[in-house]
């Protein structure tokens, strides 16, 4: 038999048959609900049944669906906790004839919408937010959108296996059309030649054994391919009509817009099929290279390579700093080591989480092509996430380092929630119950520490990424140290004033000096490590890809110094990052070579002036199957 105190702490809802049945209802509902998209339907989604499934790679779909089910069950369990009194909060008037345990089943029925008038707005908003978060975490729809962008920018050279897959007469015509692929990428000739080659390759899926594209993986999208065929036939007629009508710039621009739309649809079709065929992005990239797309070999973006040594040194310096300060106070060695260890662990986790999240957020913005160097929106987004990480870390370690007070507060809060269910009075001391919420609230000034740290470090990322000299690193260290030290001092002053800590000025000065030291370490190491990771990548494949880009740039620009200047300095068309860094992001890597074409000086030919006639794209019959 359970004790009364246990019943107060853990309501009996969780041990009833109603709760178990509610778990089953919510699990089945979440399993089906996951397939409803949380983003507008567009060109990135197939028209086939269960289209969301095909926005994932093979392995990611199962993991994402399981994640969403687990999150839904956690939400259900949290809503069950308050007990029957929640019924009045939802405005249902209560159901006094039902046993208290039935509240769990009612919550489940509310969540899945089986109770009349149960589509409560805030519940719908929370569920949709969780589902959208899971979709975004597993790169939906970003994966397909990113691949479409990559294939748009990538060079395309159809391999011999693609030509061998086409029957004799069509092969000869495609060979004749190959020269149009060497035209400028933005030209009508190049766009149409590209669309023709890719379309004829897609027609051979399931017919030609040479192709690495599997018919079973593309079969669910047969309706979409019929739409591509119909659109190709219509565009083919428009291209053929150029022979019989005046060729104006407006006609060409309109036709290029239509062809670009056709290409995007074919790229989406390839993305769905390969996601259905392969397990991960690395295997997908290999297939794309096999069918003619020049996809660079990328190294995985790992913020820990940039951050790791600096954060370890931050922890060491923090520990030494507090050991020295405590030794001057004359405290015991045991107390000094305890305080220094707590400070070192807090600094390690706080600054590590803030800078890691900031680096990862910056990478995500670049991958989604939303990054713009110097944009207040980008910096505010990153600063907010880094600030939240710092705040939560301080609040967490406050709870960890005062376990007895934290446990008493959690117990009091649990009993308070339980008292709402039983309409009983809470007998615990108010200060004991509110200890943890107060600690979380008074830790809020540390939000600005993480925000300022991320912004200061990213400001030092700007400019040429070639590794700087010692003077440049010292300037980085000074900027971050002064800004971070001042912010830490103010955060500690505000927190101390709220907590009414005696001698807060002296305490804040010590903490501010520790922040100054941590800022100096972060400023000295992190920007330099970032520049090293871009100009001298750790990964062998990434280093080879960078050397290849420098070689191409030297060939296009004529001198090695000009080539290196182009590769290692920021470009507006890349959102303010360098081509060398763009190579590390799939969505931008394929566009670097195209950008180099525009940077190269135009070739001049010493020929007498002649009447310029606009070439007409070659037509390959057979658009309809």
Automatic annotation (TrEMBL):
Organism of origin: Phyllobacterium brassicacearum
Keywords: Membrane, Transmembrane, Transmembrane helix
Name of the protein this chain belongs to: Uncharacterized protein
Transmembrane intervals: 12-31, 63-82, 102-122, 306-325, 337-359, 379-401, 443-461, 473-491, 511-530
